Amino acid sequence: MLALMEKLLALHRYYIWANRLREHFDSAISTLTASAPPEAVFIDDRGLFLSHWYAALFVVVEGWQEVQLSDPEINTLLSSPNVDLLRRFRNGVCHYQRNYNDPRFLDLVQAQGVVPWVRQLNLAFGRYFLQKLAPSAGATP
Q1: N or C: which end of the chain has fewer CB within 10 A?
Q2: Domain ranges of the chain
């Protein structure tokens, strides 16, 4: 059986990948021009990085649940119905969908409050890993 620290480090790798995609997404939206139509989001860099960031973030959620980690803020965020929307979105991104307007994509992007929730979840995971993996923290998950 893998030690808890090994599992935490493995999960951290997935968080690093997801967070790097967030950085690319933030960079892509910072160069957004007023002439870009909103529906273009799925065909330019914004859509590419947003879609893969969200999909990668759900992998972190899965790992969190599998390892049975606990943190009050993250636990609260993961009690949201947005978790299932994020799971379905990840499935849409990572598995071919014949329908361009598949509900797996639309349900998440049309849901109220998803964007701040995703950002808060991303930040909460980052805070957790910084606390638990800092040398002075004793690294106890």
Answers
A1: N
A2: 4-31+44-137
Spatial neighbors of 14 by CB under 8 A, at least 6 apart, are: 56, 59, 60, 63
The CB-based long-range contact list for 73-78 (8 Å cut-off, 24+ gap) reads 73/124, 73/127, 74/121, 74/124, 74/125, 74/128, 77/117, 77/120, 77/121, 77/124, 78/121
User: Two tokens at 82?
Assistant: 């947005």
Cβ atoms 52, 18 nearer than 8 A? no
Res 125: pLDDT? 98
Handedness of CA 73, 61, 124, 119 (dihedral sign): negative
Q: Please state, in angstroms and as integers, the Cα–Cα distance from residue 19 to each residue in 4, 16, 56, 57, 106, following that order.
A: 22, 5, 9, 8, 23
Q: Band the pLDDT of 120: cuts 50, 70, 90.
A: very high
Inform me whether the pLDDT recorded for 139 exceeds 60. Answer: no
Quick one: average pLDDT of 6-33? 92
